[in-house]
Design a protein that fits this description.
With 371 residues, the chain is α+β, with helices and mostly antiparallel strands. It is built from nine helices and 20 strands. A six-stranded mixed sheet has the order 6-7-8-3-9-10, sandwiched between helices. It has a five-stranded antiparallel sheet with strand order 13-12-11-14-20. Helix 2 packs across helix 3 and helix 2 runs parallel beside helix 4. The longest helix is centred in the middle third of the chain and has 18 residues.
Amino acid sequence: MAKVFLKDVKKIYDNGFVAVKDVNLDIIDKEFMVIVGPSGCGKTTTLRMIAGLEEITNGTIAIGDRVVNDVPPKDRDIAMVFQNYALYPHMTVFQNLAFSLKLRKYPKAEIKKRVAEAAEMLDISNQLDKKPKALSGGQRQRVALGRAIVRNPAAFLFDEPLSNLDAKLRVTTRAELKALHRRLNTTSIYVTHDQAEAMTLGDRICVMYNGEIQQVAPPMEVYDKPVNRFVAGFLGTPPMNFFNGRIRVKDGKAAFVLNDGDTIVLKSASDKFKSYIDKEMVLGVRPEHLTVEPLSGQTDNGIKSKVNIIEPLGDRKDVYLISTSGQKFIANLDPHTDIDVDHQVTMYVDISKAHVFEPGETGRNVMASIR
């Protein structure tokens, strides 16, 4: 078990493409760190550099107290679980699990003991004599996990290991992975584009975009206090709503005036927003922080709109709306809310949960420093 440390790590390919830009990340011993982001953001390249499968262009990578920049993958004391399982098709499950130990010339009794322990842990003890083609996708993934577990490495590296499983199996395997981490208590670094995996698995999550780290924090902190517009929009299903407008002053308080004239009064005094008054900004509101009825004592903070589509989902209704200026947005409402397509409604904002961002794709969340 060991901490993993990245300092100023950069990856530039021969064609000049910068895949990873000066990444700094300190992964604590025994932590489950999830690196999440869209395709092409640099998360897998970062993982492969930790594993030694990609050379770094600049920077330092350390596992435990040892800098591993020039250490080959086999000597880094890590075990990697791949998206495609990477099992040997001609070998039995037992042989797949034992293979890395045999290469390292472990005694047969030790190999048998480690394989049996991993198989029992993963509930595949009755599959040891089968070959991979006889297994389901979920069972193959367990074998891939077992092959990593038997090595008892300093760190586990996971490269989107659940992406080939169906939706239901992904959910159950996700829960098993979390329980497995608690049992093994080993440093784990997990790469995914799936925000649900990131939120449920990670002790902390590292959000990447365009080769750069945007935010590193516990899942709910990233969800509730996103540092910028990209992070806010990436996490959450349906995603956060964004409204364009300007900061004004109303009765001594800052107010966000949408482009169609609707006014959202912010809780903070106007002097806290003095550098943003009359500037174009972006209001961010999650769908669950909108309601068709005003909050207690609330008279402002309504967005006039028309209901376009309703999706009943059992535990909630996702309601797609169009504001009077043509802005499209989504609200999560109680499933029994009396609302129908083409209804003219006013959606009220829970301003205690709203965010204000500077313009741009990664515009800073100015509320983070004001609250």
